[in-house]
């Protein structure tokens, strides 16, 4: 019903509130749109606070809450960026005193490593990986453990502070007493319900009087769709979401195959420079391919999530929006983080050992981590995907696509519109014509989604990339003004919506915060060398120092036990090799249990699991403590609400007291009235009875009779 039906029937093209005039111009008249543009929606005013109250007045509470949340999130990134820079500088300062890096770079330590591939790869010295080891120390040092704990508490404090700010805004914007009104069903839901009703009654659309009667009945009966009606939609949702998740995993697997095959192909090269830079070349190109795949699948997943939500037929717009958000977030979360999860927890875990490697496609060995560990590669993967998404998807797409759509719509309108003869009208277009050229407002879901994904990059794997908050802060300084400019200059003015919170987004943020504790615990315990170093220093080292750590982590392999056809061909190694080394905790060839996991392996594994449990419980306890210490409602707001409630209660008590007094006066007046009425009736009754109770023929006077009575 209403304007929606008229637009659907092409009676109208669009319906939207008008902007308050132009945002640019030389006229002296300053409207709210122009004021917002000058003080908020320009990159030159990035240092100014946002005029949240004016944003709320112009766009409504829902959009006002989004920009308030974005502003608070950007402010909170400042302390985390400072701490992240300090952690990074700590790694730079201590790199020269890091003993394992020195041992790896010392060419006097002749660690002859096993070939990285079969047949075409030669033995190599561990000192050739010196640069990787030194770079890994920048992010793999004891300070990253502190930073992980700090970021977990930071996420909790951010959410608590947002609850306080949200409560403050709700109070000043008069949203504290806002109750959720019962929403009208969506037209798609009513249509489906009507079709079900007509099917049950076997009514055809040709019988219009009956059809209209059942439409009327439908509007007055409280009917709803049952599970059997929704089951086909749910089945399609489950199947397609599973397929999309498998598609993301398949893309990651395709990139893995690319890395394995490319590394093998480059190893065949006769160029020495190419062979020496195989790992760098493969890593860089694979990450770029992965970024392109992530950006493409992101757009596909957004459209698929919307279609899946539509076939579910949610009853209300709020339910529709929540289900759309959950589906889009699930798909985009898997798409954005699948490759990062692989590098962090799976790469190099299923390689096997020399003489017993794991192969894919019957000829290609599974890829293994660099000599310095997988943490450096995880850092590269995370940084490129994060920066790529921010620069390309969040900024270039947001700037370029609306401008292209606006230009296309303008050209289309100029081609199709009939030229008016009135030149004055053509020179001075009306505001609705100017606003019609702008892009329609489609909701805040894309804006929230890109920030939530960024929040995941900042918190989930921060142990591997302490500079993530810095890049997020730089992006958000631009993002705030970019979104502001888009709302003021590129979009039609949206309908104002009264909301007292950010809805389901808060629950998603809280879930990411809790998940980040677990993931960072496993990154530190499993991906980094923090636990092996700690165990060596306090359990295996003879003098309590890190000297000998590299030798401790390398196992021996007898090269005569290499499988036929896998030995290096035309080895150019300077000396004859009897034993080569590989990174693992295994028994040596001269042991009775050769190549089995050693006692050190099980000790380190136990320490890793113990650290995960200890870290998780400690951080969770501190998070709960911070949550308990910071009240959700600011003290001044709670006191003001109490005062208002006290005044309100006193007012009601006075009113009730006045009502009670008024009722008592009415009752007293009524009693008096009844008493006076009873006396008068008695007098009349006595006078009347005097005449009738005197016997016949009696001549007694009236006064004597009255006296007797």
TrEMBL record:
- For the region Disordered, give the residue spans: 673-709
Q: Where in the cell is it found?
A: Cell membrane; Membrane
Q: Which residues form the Anoctamin dimerisation domain?
A: 2-52
| Residue ranges, compositional bias (Polar residues) | 688-709
A Pfam family cross-referenced in the UniProt record is: Anoctamin
Q: Where is the Anoctamin transmembrane domain?
A: 55-644
Q: What is the first-listed, main subcellular location in coarse terms?
A: membrane
TM ranges are 66-90, 143-159, 234-260, 280-304, 324-345, 451-474, 502-526, 601-626
Keywords attached to this entry: Cell membrane, Glycoprotein, Membrane, Transmembrane, Transmembrane helix
Q: How does it sit in the membrane?
A: Multi-pass membrane protein
UniProt xrefs under InterPro entries:
Anoct_dimer, Anoctamin, Anoctamin_TM
Comp. bias regions, Basic residues: 673-684
Can you list the GO cellular component terms from the UniProt entry? plasma membrane
**Family to which the UniProt record says this protein belongs:** Belongs to the anoctamin family.
Recorded hits in PANTHER family, A to Z, give:
ANOCTAMIN (PTHR12308), ANOCTAMIN-2 (PTHR12308:SF20)
Q: What is this protein called?
A: Anoctamin
Q: What organism does the UniProt record list as the source?
A: Setophaga kirtlandii (Kirtland's warbler)
Q: Which gene encodes it?
A: Ano2
């Amino acid at each position: 019903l209403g304007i929606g039906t008229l637009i659907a029937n092409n009676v109208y093209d669009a319906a939207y509130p008008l902007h308050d005039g132009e945002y640019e111009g030389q006229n002296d008249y300053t409207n709210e749109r122009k004021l917002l543009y000058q003080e908020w929606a320009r990159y030159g005013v990035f240092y100014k606070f946002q005029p949240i109250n004016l944003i709320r007045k112009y766009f409504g509470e829902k959009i006002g809450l989004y920009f308030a949340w974005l502003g608070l999130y950007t402010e909170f990134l400042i302390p985390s960026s400072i701490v992240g820079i300090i952690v990074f500088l700590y790694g730079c300062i201590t790199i020269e005193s890091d003993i394992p890096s020195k041992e790896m770079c010392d060419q006097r330590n002749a660690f002859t490593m096993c070939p990285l591939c079969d047949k075409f790869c030669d033995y190599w010295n561990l000192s050739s990986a010196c640069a990787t080891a030194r770079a890994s120390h920048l992010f793999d040092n004891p300070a990253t453990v502190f930073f992980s704990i700090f970021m977990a508490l930071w996420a909790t404090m951010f959410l608590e502070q947002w609850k306080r700010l949200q409560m403050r805004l709700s109070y000043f914007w008069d949203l504290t007493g806002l109750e959720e009104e019962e929403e009208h069903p969506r037209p798609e839901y009513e249509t489906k319900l009507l079709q079900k009703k007509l099917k049950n009654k076997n009514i055809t659309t040709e019988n219009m009087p009956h059809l209209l009667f059942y439409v009327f009945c439908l509007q007055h009966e409280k009917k709803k769709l049952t599970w059997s009606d929704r089951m086909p939609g749910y089945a399609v949702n489950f199947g397609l979401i599973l397929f999309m998740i498998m598609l993301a995993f398949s893309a990651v697997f395709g990139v893995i195959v690319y890395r394995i095959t490319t590394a093998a192909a480059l190893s065949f090269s006769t160029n020495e420079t190419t062979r020496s830079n195989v790992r760098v070349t493969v890593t860089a190109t694979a990450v770029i391919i992965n970024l392109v795949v992530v950006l493409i699948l992101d757009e596909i997943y957004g459209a698929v999530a919307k279609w899946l939500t539509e076939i579910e037929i949610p009853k209300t717009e709020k339910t529709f929006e929540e289900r759309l958000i959950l589906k889009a977030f699930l798909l985009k979360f898997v798409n954005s983080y699948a490759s990062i999860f692989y590098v962090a927890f799976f790469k190099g875990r299923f390689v096997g050992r020399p003489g017993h490697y794991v192969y894919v496609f019957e000829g290609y060995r599974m890829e293994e981590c660099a000599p310095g560990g997988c943490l450096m590669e995880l850092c590269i993967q995370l940084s490129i995907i994060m920066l790529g998404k921010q620069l390309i998807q969040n900024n270039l797409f947001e700037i370029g696509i609306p401008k292209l759509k606006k230009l296309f719509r303008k050209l289309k309108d100029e081609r199709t519109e009939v030229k008016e003869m009135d030149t004055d009208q053509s020179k001075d277009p009306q505001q609705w014509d100017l606003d019609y050229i702008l892009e329609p407002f489609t909701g805040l879901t894309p804006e929230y989604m890109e920030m939530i994904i960024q929040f995941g990059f900042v918190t989930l794997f921060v142990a591997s990339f302490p500079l993530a908050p810095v890049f997020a802060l730089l992006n958000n300084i631009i993002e705030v003004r970019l979104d502001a400019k888009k709302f003021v200059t590129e979009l039609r003015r949206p309908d104002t919506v009264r909301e007292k919170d950010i809805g389901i987004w808060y629950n998603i943020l809280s879930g990411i915060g809790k998940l980040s504790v677990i993931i960072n615990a496993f990154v530190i315990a499993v991906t980094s060398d923090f636990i092996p170093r700690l165990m060596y220093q306090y359990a295996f080292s003879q003098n309590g120092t890190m000297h000998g750590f590299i030798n401790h982590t390398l196992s021996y392999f007898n090269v005569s036990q290499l499988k036929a056809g896998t030995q290096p061909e035309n080895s150019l190694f300077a000396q004859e090799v009897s034993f080569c080394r590989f990174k693992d905790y295994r028994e040596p060839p001269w042991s009775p249990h050769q190549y089995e996991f050693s006692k050190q392996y099980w000790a380190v594994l136990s320490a890793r699991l113990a650290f995960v449990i200890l870290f998780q419980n400690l951080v969770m306890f501190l998070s709960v403590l911070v949550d308990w210490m910071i009240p959700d409602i600011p003290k001044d707001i709670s006191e003001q609400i109490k005062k208002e409630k006290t005044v309100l209660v006193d007012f009601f008590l006075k009113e009730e007291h006045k009502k009670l007094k008024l009722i008592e006066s009415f009752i007293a007046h009524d009693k008096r009235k009844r008493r006076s009425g009873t006396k008068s009736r008695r007098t009349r009754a006595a006078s009347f009875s005097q005449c009738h109770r005197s016997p016949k023929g009696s001549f007694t006077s009236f006064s004597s009779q009255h006296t007797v009575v």
